[in-house]
Amino acid sequence: MAHADAVVILPAAGKGTRLGQAKQYLELGGVPVMARAARAAAACQEVAAIVVACPAGDEEKVRALLEAHGAGAKLHAVVAGGAERADSVRNALAAAPAGVELVAVHDAARPFASPALFTRVLEAARTHGAALAAIPCTDTVKKAEGTAVAGTLDRRTLWLAQTPQAFRIPVLRAGYERAGNGASSFTDEASLVEASGGRVELVPGEKENFKVTDADDLARARARVELPAAVGFGLDVHAYEEGRRCILGGIEFPGEVGLLGHSDADAALHAIMDAILGGAGLGDIGLHFPDTDDRFRGADSGRLLEEVVRRAAAAGFAVLNVDLTIAAARPKIGPRRDEMRVRIAELLGVPAARVNVKATTTEGLGFVGRKEGLAAQAVVLLARC
Ligand code: CTP
Ligand code: MG
Predict the structure, then answer these.
(1) Ligand 1 pocket: which residues have CB below 6 Å?
(2) For the whole model, what pTM was predicted?
(3) Nearest Cα to 339, choosing from 325, 352, 321?
(4) Fewer CB within 10 Å, N- or C-terminus of the chain?
């Protein structure tokens, strides 16, 4: 087994200006981008320690976040980063443990590097002093002056730099020393070594090891790890109560006995809401609209369903279809089934054909048969949007 003699530096102190938010904290499939990067580094057997550079003031939060996501095992230090990426790396390098031979710098914003890639780049650095993961250029590359083409470059000589970039520690330290204050303007570590004429070895990178830079990258990252669809199930039961209006499936049944509940007691819409919240991983109605909250007394469940659809959308889910079953001795659903479908579809913002309503009287059995109350069950399919 290889000797663990490398430290990995994760620069994670950026602002995410191009994405519009600090991407290192964003969760992909429940795991923050930076924790994915740290996990890949920790899984590499040559790696003895990890040092993270984060926004000043976030040190404790970052440590807790990495530990909570199984990425804390080899964490040696969390330090404050600097104004530029190279400043962040320099701060982290100063906190590297004594006794390590190699350093690999890896963007916290690259969640999908494999541990084997770390090994390959570290081994190349052990041999050559400096190495980086890079992808051979497959597109023809134009040089431009403004929007006019000023030439075509020979793509056989062009590689796109990724991270990890690895170095024998004195090689990187010397690169920083030579560059002095000018180091801040270098956008990767290999160029610090190149600038002094040092040899840097190219190691074939991984196409999936892309950096999350803009919204398209984030969508690509999400599509890679998150389910494209989710199913949800909801169940609700309400007792009959004389003197209350009967609202079911978003429509009123005049003259029918109503249902007991804190809101308008529309069991059908409640089952659909729970199904949507369940599929989106957002808990249940009680969590979102507590019956201890007076704002929801007598609430129109149609409005609540619209709010649930909005909250699901904010969590990245859209309703594809709904199948609703109402178990009730009364009111009679059949004659108003289509009206109910249309109303539910309207509340969900989907075509009526995506909503199905079924009814059963349960053959006179159970609490439904005894006309004590009714039950509604719903299944929904959600698409990630
Ligand atoms: N980084 C850093 N310190 C900085 C700037 C960047 O540690 N002062 C880190 C980022 O957190 C990221 C990596 O360097 O993990 C690559 O940088 P980039 O993709 O440019 O991220 P941001 O700087 O956050 O994004 P933007 O340039 O769009 O603001
Ligand atoms: Mg940046």
Answers:
(1) 11-18, 24, 53, 81-85, 88, 107-109, 211, 213
(2) 0.79
(3) 352
(4) N
